[in-house]
Amino acid sequence: MKAKQKKKKNKLIYKIIVSILFIASILFVIGLMCLNVLSIKWFMLVLGVLLIIDFLLWLFIIKSKKKKTSSFIAILFTLILSLGSFYIFKTNGLLTDVVSNYKTYNYSVLVLNDIGYTKIKELDNKVMGYLDNDSKEEKQSLEHIKNKITPDLKDYEDIEQMGNDLLTQNVDSILIEDSYLSMLKEENSKYETDCKVIYTFKVRVKIENLSKDVDVTKKAFSIYVSGIDTYGTVDSVSRSDVNIVMLVNPSTKQVLLISIPRDYYVQLHGTTGVKDKLTHAGIYGIDMSVKTLEDLLHTKINYYIKVNFTSVIDIVNSLGGVDIYSEYTFVSYSGYSFKAGMNKVDGEEALDFVRTRKAFADGDRQRGKNQQALIEALIRKATDKSIITKYNSLLSAIDGKYQTNMSIKKITALIKMQLNDMPKWNVTSYSLSGTDSSNYTYTYNQLLYVMEPDNESVEGAKSLINSVLRGNVLDSTYNNISDESNSVKKVNSNQTNNNLTPKQEVKQASKEIEKIEEEKNENDNLNNDDKIVDSKAETSKLEDDDQKKEQDEKESKVDDFENVINK
């Protein structure tokens, strides 16, 4: 009797195991259907393999004598399917999160340290200055303040005048967005030392629909890549230090990266009169940056993607680091040494690579090229078959780390195309150039450093854009690079906090470069004299007249750069 009961009980357990297996299989299939990244061919293959495994396990559990072994395998397979379903639904959730139609403004109430205000309520009936630009965010910020206190509001059209009135006690406080506050601090250290923030809040404003949808698997499209100069949440408005327009032609597998310097002196969309730095467009939201670049390049931008410092670090680390191409040997602003050629970098090193500009005679122009090199490295790593093994860490890294207006449908269509064909992409880089100058800006009515656009380079960008749109394949910028990667090392503590003047930083960086280059030549005798910043060991092999010519050119570049800094 007991044997029959035990047998009946075991039979019930086996049926439960089989039932749970079937449920896990169904959920996995539903998840794949919802994710929609597999082509019909691969989806049917997965479905067929799944049905065969389920049938065999059912058969062995119900019919064979090795029920315990079969049950153990079934439980293990159920766990694998459950884990797979978890990541599939997690992916769907992440794709939903990154598609955002809002921009966030971070406001602060600033007061003088000596006055003694510590709480927002103490400013009731006190004079509060604010920047009057008749925008949605301004109206919402004032409404927020009025719900807290009843201030005596004083409007300003000039941010510099508003700041000066706070320092001279003509107003008790100012209400200011953090992007403007950063600009004031850069121009006058008193805003850092003599003032304090006693209240902060956020204002969210909906962005108009900027997407211009196309079939991204068949037709060429463009993406504006914006990198803002902040850590933390990526939806905050801020100056855009990285401005790259990326053209993608899925038919020819051609990618064109056009870098526009942050200080490019352009007409902000919808404004008249005084022009502005391109980086300042980001203060008004990514929609302003997109429209301004459309005006500059005479092309439509289909989508945008926005990242910040945190994004770069986490995404690179999630990929297990990337191999990035450097045109020059140089020492970064934090003291990392990069060599001409390929360099293996982690997230922190990658961020340093794309932020450094003072180590180069071409300054921001070269920084733009380095930013393009990082994008190429990310494309190369993310489209490699090895990405499958880093799936979990990649999903965690991108969660909330970037913002885009490309729909889930478009993103999954691109993923499906890549997984189905696993193509290699041809990447070409191009940078707009200009001349160093100083001029008044629309955002900050003061003489600032700007870069006057070179019309010939702008026309060259337009020509390349049209070429990609027509289906032409361009020469790759990264075809003839070595597979061997250098290790990045730190050669000093921190160049940004050593109390050196910009001119001294340039000279110190040059000395570090000379030291690294000598070591490089001693170790591998590579001839990179056309790409490195300084190559004393290599020039010793040249004719005396060639050596003098090259040295004169180098000194001229450093002198030109020092002149720019002095401006």
Which spans of ≥5 residues are poorly predicted at pLDDT below 50?
493-517, 524-543, 554-567
Distance N to C terminus? 99 Å
**Biggest sheet, open or closed, and with what strands and sense?**
6 strands, mixed
Class derived from helix and strand content: alpha/beta
Rough outline:
globular
The percent range for helix content is 40-55%
- How many DSSP helices? 18
Share of residues in strands: 15-25%
Total E-strand runs = 21
Q: Order of strands side by side in the largest beta sheet?
A: 16-11-6-7-8-17
Averaged pLDDT, please?
83
Q: State Rg.
A: 29 Å
What do these coordinates show?
The N and C termini lie far apart (99 Å). This protein is α/β, with parallel strands linked by helices and 567 residues long. Residues 493-517, 524-543 and 554-567 have low confidence and may be disordered. The longest helix is centred in the N-terminal third of the chain and has 34 residues, at 2-35. α10 (309-318) packs antiparallel against α13. It has helices at residues 2-35, 40-63, 67-98, 136-148, 159-167, 178-187, 190-193, 278-281, 286-297, 309-318, 347-355, 364-382, 391-398, 408-421, 455-469, 502-524, 536-539, 544-566, and strands at 102-112, 127-131, 152-156, 173-177, 195-206, 221-228, 240-249, 254-259, 265-266, 276-277, 303-307, 322-326, 330-331, 336-338, 341-345, 402-404, 426-431, 434-440, 447-453, 485-487, 489-490. A hairpin with a 6-residue loop joins β18 (434-440) and β19 (447-453). The relative contact order is 0.10. The protein has a 6-stranded mixed beta sheet, with helices on both faces. It contains 18 helices and 21 strands.
